[in-house]
Design goal:
3 helices; alpha+beta; 3-stranded antiparallel beta sheet; globular; Metal Transport, Frataxin, Chain A; 78 residues; single chain
């Protein structure tokens, strides 16, 4: 069963991605979007919109881009 993802802020999402090894990608985010990248294994670039509440569908797409399962993301966001 896929766990239900909560509505989180962009800061909480970026913090959770930092815990699993992502870091800011300098000069990559434009406007109200922030880019994070992970460089071990295949390089992954994930763009996170900067908002107070990120929609659940956007969060699910972000976890897919980061190659994380919803459960792994929830574990890192705590």
């Amino acid at each position: 069963m896929i766990p239900r993802l909560p509505s989180l802020s962009s800061r909480q999402i970026i913090d959770a991605l930092n815990r699993v090894g992502f870091e800011y990608a300098l000069r990559r985010g434009k406007g109200r979007h922030r880019a994070v990248v992970i460089r071990w294994g295949p390089t992954l670039l994930v763009i996170v919109p900067e908002r107070k509440n990120i929609a659940v569908g956007t969060l699910r797409a972000t976890t897919r881009q980061a190659c994380l399962t919803p459960q792994a993301f929830l574990d890192s966001s705590r």
